[in-house]
Amino acid sequence: MAAVRVGEIELDCERSGSGPPLLLIMGMSGTTLHWGEAFLAELRREFEVITYDHRGVGASTRLHGALTIRQLADDAAGLLEALGVESAHVLGISMGGMVAQELALAHPQRVRTLTLGCTYCGGPDSSLSPHGVRERLAEAMLSGDRERALRTAWEVNVSAQMAADAQAYARFLEIAKRRAVAVPVIMAQMQASLAHDTSARLHGLTLPVLIVHGSADQMLPVANAHLIHSLIGGSRVEILDGVGHLFFWECPQRAAELVRAHAAVPA
């Protein structure tokens, strides 16, 4: 990882692999480590993969005050400019998918193709996580028991089958130990996500758009994928049956195949 100056802040960034540039935008409470080596290894075969930590995360500049999704999108555009990358294929997941939407809307010249994973667009027809899931997460986070908080986060972000995989959970724990995200940063990201709304503007996107979502997603129900698909003319939707929110953890090879195939679509 290396610090890259983006305006008044620095973003911790890594470039790996070779081929056309692919910018990966992580979601709420996530770090570059959460992409998982299995998924990244697949992507590096055909792309120069660009990953980074959002402001407030890891070695990126500390967060002071509130956040907006548009601010994070401007960070992403500024990072590409600082790296000398004129345009890139873009994959954003969850909150990162919201950032990717704003990036494509505000800086369309920077985005070759757009892949939106397990995300939502806001507006009256979008669906947040069910009340029970939000309540369970909040109770675990506020309990002061870090192990309980991590276990709960794991269980609501993956399918029941994946949640029972001890080795996968051990990898998840190791990532949390290596690079924790501060609770105030997570809360700022959550507030930014709750305020996100591109629903009335997505019709303006004319680039190739792929929407990927797991049918067993508890964090952002799969109905969001169908809504986004209905709002973006010419977009394509891929539903992964029985898969949870972190679809790239559960099926990294399939997820990478989808990104590769989509990037081959003529812009």
What can you tell me about this protein's structure?
- With about 270 residues, this protein is of the alpha/beta class.
- The chain has a single domain (about 1-130, about 180-265), classed as Alpha/Beta hydrolase fold, catalytic domain (Rossmann fold, 3-Layer(aba) Sandwich).
- The chain has 11 helices and 8 strands.
- It has an 8-stranded mixed beta sheet, sandwiched between helices.
- α1 (about 35-45) packs parallel to α11 (about 250-265) and α4 (about 130-140) runs antiparallel to α5 (about 145-155).
- It is globular.
- The protein starts with a strand and ends with a helix.
Architecture, CATH level 2?
A: 3-Layer(aba) Sandwich
Number of DSSP helical runs: 11
Specify the structural class: alpha/beta
User: Low-confidence parts lasting 5 or more residues at pLDDT below 50?
Assistant: none
Q: How many extended strands? A: 8
Order of helices and strands: EEEHEHEHEHHHHHEHEHH
Distance between the termini: 30 Å
Q: What is the 3D form?
A: globular
Q: Work out the strand percent.
A: 15-25%
Count of separate structural domains: 1
Strand line-up in the sheet with most strands: 1-2-4-3-5-6-7-8
Q: What number is the mean pLDDT? A: 95
CATH class: Alpha Beta
Helix content: 40-55%
Rg (CA only):
17 Å
Largest sheet: 8 strands, mixed
CATH superfamily: Alpha/Beta hydrolase fold, catalytic domain
Q: What would the CATH topology be?
A: Rossmann fold
